[in-house]
Amino acid sequence: MKKLINDPRNVVREMLEGLVDLNPGLALLDGEAVVLRADLPSPAERKVAVISGGGSGHEPAHGGFVGPGLLTATVAGDVFTSPSVDAVLAAIRASAGPAGAVLVVKNYTGDRLNFGLAAELARQEGIPVEIVVVADDVSLRDLVAEDRRRGIAGTVLVHKVAGAAAEAGKPLAEVARLAREAAGALGTMGVGLGACTVPAAGAPGFSLGEDEIELGLGIHGEKGVERCPIRSADEIVETILGAILADRKLGQNARVALLVNGLGATPPMELSIVARRALACLREHGIVVDRAWCGNFLTALDMPGCSLSVLALDDERLALLDAPAQAPAWVPGQPVRAERKVVSKASGSETGAGEAAPGPLSDRLRKAAHAVAAALEAAEARLTELDGQAGDGDLGASMRRGAEAIRALPDSAWATPESAFAAVGNAFRRAIAGSSGPFYATALLRASRQVAGRPVPDAAAWDAAFAAAVEAVMEIGGAKPGDRTMVDALVPAHQAWVEARRNGSTVADAWQACVTAAERGAEATSSMSPRLGRAAYLGQRAVGVPDGGAVAVATWLRALSPHIG
Q1: C-alpha gyration radius of the chain
Q2: pTM for the whole thing?
């Protein structure tokens, strides 16, 4: 286990100290794991306090939601452990006044007991307290009664409703009523792709196979209600929303808020993919999504996975969600369009894109290009391995996409050398992201201009095309021989071609010299210290394996051999 911690016993306190140090609007209660607003007035002037909390490990919940319009205070227990009665009572005493406090409690036995007893003790001291229990986990619908379900990520939306009501000056009973009604209109379900690691335990809580997921899990690193084979993101979203909508009886014309919540180790890319399908799925059911959030709100340490929460809305509840709030982790809910906005691209023309009658070299050009495609596809694994050792590992996939782009070109692309170079260059530009696409596209477009208007270019035109392509790569990338890049295969290949042609070699022999020089140049990069590209960030650690880009050049040059001459 690798964790950026000091002593596992001190993670909660040190985490809260860091949170408060970074946010001047927060304060830490002396001697307790309690975070509260730093701007609280005297007790007599305080509005209803909204207090929540629970075990740590759910960051940014709960301390990240302390602030005006949200929570007044939060109480943190040890990781995945309910805070003590005394800690909850200390939070009530420190943040509440005669107006009282609403405790928003997730439906776990420890939380209910400790928050409940603390509330009773506070009442004895004359502080009015109401408890709102959130039990939004619909995955348990067939296993336990509704009031026995777990409270999970949808609790964040209840915090917002209660906090806005309290900030508006509503009395205790009204704040509690609005929060309870929101909790009753809420459904959440999650999916885990793997386990999390509790710092004190030092090992994952359970293990999953590479093709397994846990559906319907809580927020404490526990297993779900069902282990099943992994599915696509869209299928998982449809399963989760199907359960929520059926349980909450939401259908045509319902208005809702959507919360897409990461469990700690899911990147924004994947959460956005989930959000995309969730919005579409709700629309397909005739449901209007008035507001949506996507990100990490209530996590389970470093668990990969997510949850979806759906909250039924009316005008009053929507106004409470929209009410101003300031807290370190809170972001306003975004209004959601009824459909995705897509802007049309500006029209333009591409060199070599027009239709042309097949020329004398049309068939040979197509066969040569398809040979290159086959060679790049066959080399995908090796190129991926090489690039992974000194780069980001995407070269093999990029070259495969380039090969697929070649195969997809219409017959008209091969009409002339000019059209072939331009068509392949533009296809690579569209198909290959990163650096490879622009390099090859620029080189091929430059080459196409050297053979323009020549159905059968002469030797001088071919030589000029080769030279222009090599020069283009060096110009846009800034690489020189010795920098450990594709240039270290291209430059010696071109020099060998020119020298062999000058010495009277046949075209076939000159090309063989070209290929041999490229392969030697690519192999030589294994002893070079990189000076450009991602490999340069590794320094001497990249030495020992050849550069993937140079190997790719040697690969496609050799593939052209049977077609040159």
Answers
A1: 32
A2: 0.78
